[in-house]
Hints:
The protein is α/β, with parallel strands linked by helices. It has nine helices and five strands. The radius of gyration is 17 Å and the shape is globular.
Amino acid sequence: MTSDSHAGQIIILNGAPRSGKSSIARAIQDEFEGPWINLGVDGYNAMTPQRYLPGIGLRPGGERPELEELIPFLYAALYESIAIHAGLGLNVVADLGHHDSYAHPLGILPDCARRLDGLSVLFVGVRCPLETIMQRRDISQDGRETLYLRATADMPVPEPVQRWQDEVHRPGIYDMEVDTSVLTAHECAEAIRQRLDLGIPGPSAFERIAGGR
Length: 213
């Protein structure tokens, strides 16, 4: 990937809900040099009409086929916005949960990768064991009390939570991975900074995904 020297850097954080993506994104915004704009799922869904939610946060399983026809367009618009921000010299971090477990495959991730062609993209897999994710789901967050399914005596791991864990890291092509059960958000951000300082080996993850490799 030949990058414009005046373009901003792009970091895509991919992982399941409560894996720690948003905390890493905030750490990047707080600690990295220059402006870093967060164009992730929470901000995008805040702009999405209520009747079309969860929008790009639609979970795996094909539960909302009437909504799925909109999802590729929402992702396309988001990634075009990411490209415009970076093209104007702004750095972008986006915390997302890519998967292709819809009623039928939509091929969204390769399309998104192609929309960032020519830009410097670091694709980061944010891993977290299921046990830790379930513990985090039991912790209340202001304004998000109804967003996350929690364990019950009859269902220690709700099926939708397991589906996220199974599907979000397919095909698993990344430039780097972090595990938030062993690293803090700040430590993950520092590892990402070091990867950027060393450079992204070619072909990058997004180049391989865009080309089907």
